[in-house]
Design a protein that fits this description.
Largest sheet: 2 strands, antiparallel
Strand order of the largest sheet: 1-2
Helix content: 40-55%
CATH topology: Arc Repressor Mutant, subunit A
Structural class: mainly alpha
Strand content: 5-15%
Radius of gyration: 15 Å
Distance between the termini: 24 Å
Number of domains: 1
Shape: globular
């Protein structure tokens, strides 16, 4: 798992993304899963984001297992809420109950 404090320390210019920005990037990736590589995705976002902020968002989404990069470098959205609903109550799964 990625230590977010370490990510912020890597660059003194890194910005902390807002929730709105994280959700915008996540929804864009979800709607275009597998279409873009990282740089292409960055240039096609609906709103401008600083590269360092974008990097932090991508690392965050990878660390919580919502996205992966395939062998060619395309970003793929893998989060499946339907599957999560099926398995969240199993004894072997630790989950915060709503």
């Amino acid at each position: 798992m990625i230590n977010m404090k370490a990510v912020y320390k890597q660059s003194e210019f890194a910005r902390s993304p807002t929730l709105q920005t994280v959700l915008m990037v996540e929804k864009f990736i979800e709607s275009r899963s597998g279409e873009y590589k990282k740089t292409e995705l960055f240039h096609n976002l609906p709103k401008k984001v600083m590269w360092q902020t974008f990097q932090i968002i991508i690392e965050y989404l990878e660390s919580i297992h919502k996205i992966v990069l395939d062998k060619e470098g395309y970003i793929v959205y893998i989060w499946n809420p339907v599957f999560f609903e099926k398995v969240k109550n199993r004894p072997a799964i630790k989950s915060k109950k709503p």
